[in-house]
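Repro:
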Amino acid sequence: MDLGQALQGRSSRAASILLAIVSVLLVTLLYYKQNAFLEGFEARTYDLRFKSLRGPIPPHPDIAIITIDDRSIAELGRFPWSRQQYVRLLERLEAAKPKAILFDVFFPEVENAETDQALAEAIRRAGNVVLATTFEFDRQFRVSGSTGSLPQLERAAAGIGHINLIPEEDGVNRRNLLQIERDGQAVPSLGLMAAMLTLGEKQFSSESFRVRLGERSIPVGHDGALWINYTGAPGNYPRYAFADVVSGRVDLASLRGKTVFLGATALGVYDMRVTPFHANSPGVEVHAAVADDILSQRYIHRTGLQSLFDLVMIVLAGGLSYYLTARMRLHRAIPAVLLLGAAYVGLCYWLFLQGQWVSMVYPPLAAIVSLLVGGGFRYMVLERNAREMRAMFSSYLSSKLVNQLEKNPGAARIGGDNREVTVMFTDIKGFTAFSERHKPQVVVARLNEYLAAMVQLIYAHDGTVDKFMGDGILAYWGAPLSQPDHAKRAVACALAMKQVMAELGARWQQQGLEPFVIRGGIQTGDVVAGNIGSRGQKMEYTVIGDTVNQASRLEGMAKYFGVDFVVGDATYLKTCDSFRFRRLDRVRVAGKDIPVAIHELRGPVQPQEDRLETLFAAALAQFRQKHWEAAETAFLAILAEYPNDIPSRLYLERCLQFKAVPVSTDWDGVFNRQDK
């Protein structure tokens, strides 16, 4: 037994389920391990959602940036400037009365006592200035040092905010640590300080996966970092050049009540950061985006709940992909899984618009892995048997039955099963003579046209073509797949054959061609059904048994009685509620001692009685009772009304014979038919 045979039925299902579980567990493990390669792709999808899918959005209307730009440096002189310039700036901003002024610059060294004191006084008078600080870390990410402004300046400020931006491994700044511990004290980020002053909050608190700021709950990761919901590329926030503000060229009304950030945008100052929107974004705009997120409450949630969602989606995507692969052929399963992945990507984007960052990589990866594993298993093991089935049966089985056999290859295994089937044997009346009168090319062309039409009908009634024997067709119903109504399917097919042959005959006559007349025998009974032959050499699925022989003998009886189809008693008993029959005789066919009742197939059941059937049944009853005179009279009456009824003519001849030569006293009414 090969692997394909071993993995059938329950074994194949168990193997498929096991492979599906292994596929999902593999992707789940990669998710937990935070595989660097896949995480890099995931991060890129995060950037893609910003830049290529969602695009820029309107920033918070109360945030503005005063820029240390190239034009200001050209006008005010080489940077860094004298602190007197910042004193001028604060004096100008007093009239605008902004809610907060956030400095993204340092004043770490003494310039001179007078200037430093003047800046400290300007900061104190403003009352809403936040100065920046930055921290250095050791390898364990513990604070090892810091750089800030002069102590006298920091004491005058309304607060201190750190400006540390820690990029991801690919250099993109996607998160911001809202606080950093220094000597047991939490130092908020510059963006968080901006939100605190704007909202009038003096304190914040940290909880698991969130930071509390008054009534606001800010979602953060396990490390306290906020995923930054960028509003757009550099320049999305209103910008005012430093030189324009201090020189009075800016309408201060445009800054009234605003949260104002001060920072460098000039490339030469080297405060450029990589963000999802742009590779050269001023650091001050990153801090402004953090403040914007908190003020607008437009957060990107990436916490434990989203991780749970990812895991559920990994299982669902992998399981559904495996289900599709198991239920569909690969050429259909592949686009179905791709559509599934596209639908999930659409869901991820929609959730992103709602502020939820869920994985766009791992669930589709689970679907693809399941497709590859499931498809590979199916192609190498399961579909090999399906391909064998299709190659074996497609030439003599309907495509519907072949598809069912692919799903259940065990229904047609090597060897045989006892099955109850209905067998039909047909041939063409006078075909031998027709062959002798016509050229071989004409005979073959007409025969192919006839066989094509008949095979199509057999397939349409879900029958199986066993073989062609010259002009003869052997077909059966009930194997290789069980069909509870196999007898009715066979009888319905026989009636359809009669109708199609009448249509073909009319067409042939119009073309000046000789029409064909078919006849057949149908019998129901037990056979041995299975694949006969040698695997890899020559093999065919067939039925063997006395029922097949009886169908052949009944076809001969159709010839003898001059009717189209003769049906055995077993078939008659299974179909008499749906079709009309005329009982012809009880015969003992060649090679059989037990007589069988035979019936002529007349048509579907109809409301009114068939006169010929009624008259024939009455005449046959007289014949069975040995009332030869009455039977003779009855059959003569039938022939007077139906002169072409051959069964009545045969019985009339028997009446005359038995009148001349009386039958024995033990006569059982059985006709002994020795011809095949």
